[in-house]
Design a protein that fits this description.
mainly alpha
């Protein structure tokens, strides 16, 4: 008969199989077995850093509670609605106007746009807080009105970004013109007086339409300047017409 193949013994350490639970070694902790869940208190002669006499006693009587004075004009009230309640009513959330347009915001100053932006930010913060409170309480109302109000606020913020972007491009174009004209942009140079571009454009159009007439007018002006004041005084002055 052929010999059966006998595998070589493995060098990997192994332990014999056993269904008996392995006994763990004791960690020698003195607080072992002290649990607040199982109400296992302290052992004999065991002390803590905190004494029971030093712990404050809660006051359950509401009449004995200390009254805390709250500032009615505190800044945190701006993150709540006008009624200062946790959730606003759907009618109050629905009572809002339309969003600001870009055309309207183009006429606003930087300070006005800055204030309007943060008013929108605080309003969105309030709506997000109330939405979280509705989900926690499972209220089941007010979500549509809140989302529609937040949409108008986002449109206003988008319009603010649009207006500021236009101003930035206008400023950048003016800076490029100043650099091309060789102006000192450090702030220490002379004040730049812009030219009247409308008059320059009008003169350019006249030169294009009638260049010969423009040249004749220039020659006539130079001839009149060459005449001396004495020569003008010798010329006979026109006499007034006789009245009948």
């Amino acid at each position: 008969m052929p010999r059966l193949y006998t595998p070589k013994p493995s060098k990997v350490p192994s332990s014999p199989f056993s269904t008996t639970a392995q006994r763990l070694k004791r960690d020698k902790s003195r607080n072992r077995g002290v649990s607040a869940i199982h109400a296992t208190g302290l052992r004999r002669r065991q002390t803590l850093h905190v004494k029971k006499e030093d712990l404050p006693t809660p006051v359950l009587d509401t009449a004995k509670h200390s009254k805390i004075q709250v500032d009615p004009n505190h800044g945190l009230w701006q993150f709540f609605n006008n009624k200062r309640s946790a959730i606003n009513t759907p009618d109050d959330d629905h009572a809002h106007g339309r969003a600001w347009t870009v055309e309207e915001l183009r006429h606003k100053s930087w300070e006005d746009l800055h204030r309007l932006w943060w008013v929108c930010a605080k309003e969105r913060n309030r709506l997000a807080t109330e939405a979280y409170e509705r989900r926690r309480l499972n209220a089941g109302y007010g979500e549509y009105e809140s989302q529609h109000r937040e949409r108008e606020i986002k449109l206003t913020q988008r319009a603010i970004k649009h207006a500021l972007t236009e101003r930035w491009y206008a400023w950048d174009a003016a800076r490029q013109v100043a650099v091309e004209e060789g102006l000192d942009l450090s702030g220490n140079g002379p004040v730049w007086t812009p030219q009247n571009f409308e008059e320059d454009d009008a003169e350019l159009e006249e030169d294009i339409e009638d260049p010969e007439g423009r040249q004749n007018n220039t020659v006539e002006e130079e001839r009149l300047k060459a005449v001396s004041p004495e020569a003008d005084s010798t010329q006979p002055r026109p006499q007034p017409a006789a009245t009948g």
